[in-house]
Each structure stands twice: as structure tokens, then as C-alpha cells.
Amino acid sequence: MNNLEEKEVRKKYFEAIGNERKIERLLKKLRDIENPSSLLLAYRAACESMMAQFSWNPYIKLAQVTKSFDFFEKAIKNDSQNAEIRFLRFSVQHNVPDFLRKNREFEEDKDALLENLKQTNFAQADFDTEFAQFIIGYLKDSGRFEVKELEVLG
Fold first, then answer.
1. Taking 50 as the threshold, does the pLDDT of residue 23 lie above it?
2. Is 7 within 8 Å of 127 (Cβ atoms)?
3. Which of 14, 28, 7, 53 is nearest to 137 (CA)?
4. Which residues, in sequence order, are CB contacts of 153 under 8 Å at separation 6+?
5. 19-54 in b/e burial notation, b at 16+ Cβ within 10 A?
6. pTM score, two decimals?
7. CA-to-CA dists, residue 28 to 4, 107, 108, angstroms
């Protein structure tokens, strides 16, 4: 997929949050992609994780989240500097209960996001200002940053 298609996936992802049918449709499209980019793999990981919220079975929930983190691991291994991939994993880790112990990389993602903000302020990222502001707002609202760290977020 080219950048335009990645932008479309981003748009559909945020439109799908909380909507099982939309997540299923997007996830099907992402699963059908042969050799996805690291970013598309991260969006697949995030969708896999979101599907867990719609299952009543705790074993299925855990399997879904575990699968999600396997995909995140591959995406970050291939593109560890991508702020959008780090943000997606950060947001999933933020929402997964701590007792599942799926937040091992939380500090790593947090540090990578802060470093990216310090260096580029998302200016070089492949997404628009509105999305960058969404990321910054989400990070501020997450409650996962110290006051001095929040200064970097503007």
C-alpha cells in the first residue's frame, strides 16, 4: 500500500474505534494484505486488540491481545523509529489491564514518543497536523507522563 492508502487506513481506524462492525471490516482488509508495511501491521495489531473488547470469553480476549502484541513486536522490529507505530502500541498498552502484563514496552514507547517530539515535533512525520495534535492530546490525557515530560508536548 502506498502512503495515500496508509492515510485511508488511519482514517478508517479512528472512525472504527468502539464500533465492532467497522473494526471487523478494517481488520479483514488488513489481514488480506500480502507483505504489509510496518505501519499497516501496527494498525492490524491495534485492530486485533480492539476486537478483544467485544468478546465475553476471557480466553478469547487474552488470545486476541496476545496476537496483537505479536504483530506490534514485528512492526517495531522493522521500523523502531516510527512515531505512529509507537503511538498505536502505547495507546493499546494504556488501555490493556495491568494484570495481563502486556505493558512491558510501555516506558520504551513513551521514551521513543518523547524523543520524537523533541527532535522533530512530528514535522517530518507522514501525517497531518490534526493527527499530530490528536496524538499530543492523547499523550497528555493519558496520565502516564510526569509534569516535566509534558513540557515537551507543548
1. yes
2. yes
3. 14
4. 117, 136, 139, 140, 145
5. eeebbeebbebbeeeeebbbbbbbbbbbbbbbbbee
6. 0.85
7. 19, 31, 30
Binned at pLDDT 50, 70 and 90, residue 1 comes out as very low
The residues, ordered by sequence, that sit 6+ positions from 49 with a Cβ below 8 Å of its Cβ are 64, 65, 68, 69, 92, 95, 96
- Note the pLDDT tens digit of each residue in 29-64: 999 998 999 999 999 999 999 998 898 898 998 898
Q: Are 71 and 92 in contact (CB under 8 A)?
A: no
Give, in order, the Cα–Cα distances in Å from 96 to each of 1, 14, 46, 110, 129. 29, 18, 11, 15, 27
Phi, psi of 108 (to 5 degrees): -60, -45
Percentage of residues in the chain having pLDDT higher than 70? 81
Cell of 82: 516510527
Checking if the pLDDT of 2 tops 50, the result is: no
